[in-house]
Amino acid sequence: MQKQKKWKKNLYENVGYPDNYTDKTFLEELKKNVHAKEISPLNAVLGAGLVTQEICIVVLFVVIYVYLLNVWVEPETMFVQSSLVAAIGYLTYRIVLTNKNYYNVLIKDFRTVLIFVAFGYVLSPILKTLTDTISTDTIYAMTSFMMMIHLIFFDYGVSAAIVSSSLSLNAAIFGSVCLASRLASPFHAFVLLTNAVECFVLLPILLSKGKGSILVLAVMISVAIYALWTVSLTMTILFICVSIFVTVLCPIWFLRWQNYKENIYGPWDEAIVHDTEM
């Protein structure tokens, strides 16, 4: 009998072998977890802390709404205090944390703020009555749903298909407009919407410069706990439990499940052509 040729990984050369035949050398190119990255416990906590920070922002905004709704603070006082905090944060961002010619940028941004304040104040009566005919229970349900969408689609620095900064921001602003209709006057609504822009637009930009800092995370959680404690002890305990779950338990589970990760790569994978310069 004619001696059979040695099997190769080229189908057209394997005359006399079944199409699905492989020898012991086929699995020599098997690789596992080629693109796996080692994540430290600190990085896992900081990554989960980004979600906790955004939850803290939502909590702070809701506390501001409760204060305005119950008239625990005058809207003028809230507007001045929040504006001062926003101004300090903005100047810190522009002067300390950026290496640009910030003088021209300050003039441009100041013009933008004036336009926003003017149009926001003029349109606040319309925004207040936009959802005025809807029942309060429906308003709160819609706001809760919008804030959940905001948290789900927020850009936490991960490149994923679910991330949509525009959808996240629009959901938060729409929830703010819904809550504005429950307040006493158009100026109350204007103050609430101004704080919504500061919380959901300006504050995340400032916090992005402090990404990866345990101190920033601790300050945000502490401020949120204190603010929520002035409103409801039950909600404070619930928020603490949620913070522990997101910031501590989820990273622990993630690191534990990383040990079971096993992606295999081998000669059965689709060939990838790499362009090389001649």
UniProtKB/TrEMBL annotation:
Pfam families: GPI2. It comes from the Eukaryota. Pathway: Glycolipid biosynthesis; glycosylphosphatidylinositol-anchor biosynthesis. The chain crosses the membrane at residues 42-67, 79-97, 109-127, 139-158, 167-184, 190-207, 214-231, 237-255. GO terms for cellular component: glycosylphosphatidylinositol-N-acetylglucosaminyltransferase (GPI-GnT) complex. The keyword Cytoplasm does not apply. It is found in: Membrane. GO terms for biological process: GPI anchor biosynthetic process. InterPro entries: Plno_GlcNAc_GPI2. Keywords: GPI-anchor biosynthesis, Membrane, Transmembrane, Transmembrane helix. It is a multi-pass membrane protein. The keyword Membrane applies. Belongs to the PIGC family. This is Phosphatidylinositol N-acetylglucosaminyltransferase subunit C. It comes from Diploptera punctata.
